[in-house]
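input
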Amino acid sequence: MIICIILVVGNLIFFKYIDFFIENFNIIFKSNINVLSIVLPIGISFYTFQILSYIIDLYNKKIKVQKNIISLSLYVSLFPQLIAGPIVRYETIEDEIDNRKENIDDIIKGVKRFIIGLSKKIILANQMAIMADMIFNNHTLSFGTSIIWLGVLAYTLQIYFDFSGYSDMAIGLGRIFGFHFLENFNYPYISTSVTEFWRRWHISLSSWFRDYIYIPLGGNRVNKIKWLRNIFIVWLLTGFWHGAAWNFIIWGLFYGILLICEKTFLDKILKKLPKFISWLYTIIIIMIGWTIFRANNLTELLYFIKVMFIYHKTDWLTILADNLINFNSIFFLIPAIVLSFPIFKKVQEKYSNNIIYTIIMNIILLGLLSVCIVYLISSKYNPFIYFRF
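output
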């Protein structure tokens, strides 16, 4: 097991982090080692974690060894979720690898789920990306507090609809082929604490770190110092997993510190507050976190945080004159905000057995698919923000 883990993790470190280590070594020791500029294999973090879960679960006798190399390769390189997750554990699809049964009901539900995910990505995430990229990549001194917050809000919505959209597409495609993947998102922006947020956001990653890092280190069943150490290690690794840059490490430690605060004293305070206040605290923290995550460099990050909380006037006339066409995406802002809350989920639960509702929804889904196809044909702008992972 140890040899396998070293080989697999070593492979990830070499491809994803070697240049980061060389660059920082050069800065610290004033050396001049050339970076290797290795092309990053797409999806390496996701299938690395899948292989690791298989190795560790096999060692712990939670699963049986897969002796068929083709079946094992199918699990490791399962194309619906290979590039952008979710992280699928072998035990989830162990039986379905060799004994799955496709049926018309799963195919129909899978197609519908795929269309929903595609619509999230193409119609909502890409429109939010236009605004977020304009503000993050082209900010000047005319960009004050209000437009910076607008950019952060746009990115907050972009990353949710982008990643949850990919997860929906993966779950839908998997279902078409007889695989039943676990849910990866559960309306994270309704959370009233950071702890709850991480139970709802990227569930497969959170549970992976919990089961394979946090619990083996002792979890919360150790003394307080070791418990805090465990949380610190998990979130340091979580941040570093997302990319070879300091802002990802800071992002991980930011959440690690917040979770320590919540688990030690803050959670008791939040539970006594009105839900709206707890939600407002959480969503502001999340948006600050996404600012750290999105910043192109540390200098930009410090500038953004400063402007967000120390008021600077925004020169809207200059900005609109230079970027008017990009502001068309603002019309998608309200639908994106509304759809990040479980309003339509509740409608679905209430009317799912109503034949008229089903017909209307099918027509809407066909319309959404048509719109997505038009966008894909007519637009070259289709950012893939998870390439770095």
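quick obs: Residues 104-137 form the longest helix (34 residues).
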